[in-house]
Amino acid sequence: MTLSYGFVTPASRDDVDALESLPIDSLWVGGHVAARNPTPEAMAQLARLAAVSARVRIGTSILLLPLYPPAIVAKQVADLDRHTGGRITLGIGVGGEYPQEFRACGVPLAERGPRTDEAIPLLRQLWTGEETSHAGRFFPMQDVRIHPAPAQPGGPPIVVAGRQDAAMRRAARLGDGWMPYLYSPRAYGDSVARIRVVAAEAGRDLARFEWMVFLFVNAGDSPEAAREQAAGALGGNYNQDFGAFVDRVAAVGTPDQVAARVQAYVDAGARHVIFSIAGAPDRLAMARRLMAEVVPQVRDPESARPSA
Question: In sequence order, what are the residues at sequence separation of 6 or more whose Cβ sits closer than 8 angstroms to the Cβ of residue 278?
């Protein structure tokens, strides 16, 4: 699997047009129902992105799956996948950092993991376009047919995001890929090893599994300014001080320093890097700089191995 790159985007037409002119592979949107800070909703954002994008793969990073009825998600994603000619990837997670979202949606916080584990295979059943009956604890249904089916046979890939061991187990047993965030390269490598062990125990073949990383990034001429901007942005997002944390879980500094950091994630097993620009005053200028000065320095370890 060769290296690929994507960006988180606000899904405006001007931003998407500019980003799609770059040699990138994907664009991503996220959102919440009731977060601490103002934010759009993930499925509405994905619909906007589907309307204004033309070329690249598009996805959610992430959709908080336990907040949604699987039948609604299946229908929305199937429609968008057909509209885009099969360009959708569904990135999902369980959330929990904003308990008010779960209260607002009538979902007990403690049920978010089991609901997600039940919903993932149910989505795939519904995406067959055939009648589905399901006797699960949370989403029982009888003779439900969601059609037309998605453009991608079997439905879009479902990539699992998260940080904890439960998310790794979910990715290994149920997911089509892994997309952690706020990870160091070492933690990423540990997660790859953990997922491979769990998948082997479950008898799953990971040959087509996608190894993604959601990476906050800021590259500039002044490493101090890049670090300060990123720490400020992340602190606002997560309501904590990221000053001492940003160097461990993000890629900040000069373009050369950021390239070395991205290379560390690639060496740890990442093959699809999703850049989330943190704190830069001009996001598009930063995206162009990353693709021109950072990405060309990163090497795929697999390509360096001699062929048998």
Answer: 216, 217, 218, 229, 230, 233, 234, 250, 252
DSSP strand E in the chain: where? 4-8, 26-29, 57-60, 63-64, 88-93, 132-134, 141-144, 158-162, 177-180, 210-219, 251-253, 272-277
pLDDT tens-digit map of 251-264:
999 999 999 999 99
**How is residue 215 annotated by DSSP?**
E
Residue 106: its H or E element: none
Q: How many CB atoms lie within 10 A of CB 67?
A: 23
CA distance 128 to 113: 24
Inter-residue contact 103 to 66 (CB < 8 Å):
no
CATH H-level superfamily of 1-156:
Luciferase-like domain (3.20.20.30)
| Model-wide pTM > 0.90 | yes
Contacts of 99 (CB under 8 A, 6+ apart): 109
What local confidence, expressed as pLDDT, does residue 242 receive?
72
* Helix or strand holding residue 283 (H, E): helix 283-289
User: For 107-138, how does the pLDDT look when each residue is reduced to its tens digit (9 = 90+)?
Assistant: 999 999 999 999 999 999 999 999 999 999 99
Q: Provide CB contacts within 8 A for 121, sequence distance 6+.
A: 174
Evaluate whether 34 touches 104 at the Cβ level (below 8 Å).
yes
Dihedral, 125, 4, 274, 253 alpha carbons, nearest 10: 170
Q: Specify whether the CB–CB gap between 61 and 45 falls below 8 A.
A: no
Burial class (CB in 10 A: 0-12, 13-18, 19+), 179: buried
Average pLDDT over residues 7-33: 97
What is the overall mean pLDDT for the chain? 95
pLDDT digits (tens, 9 = 90+) for 28-53: 999 999 998 899 999 999 999 999 99
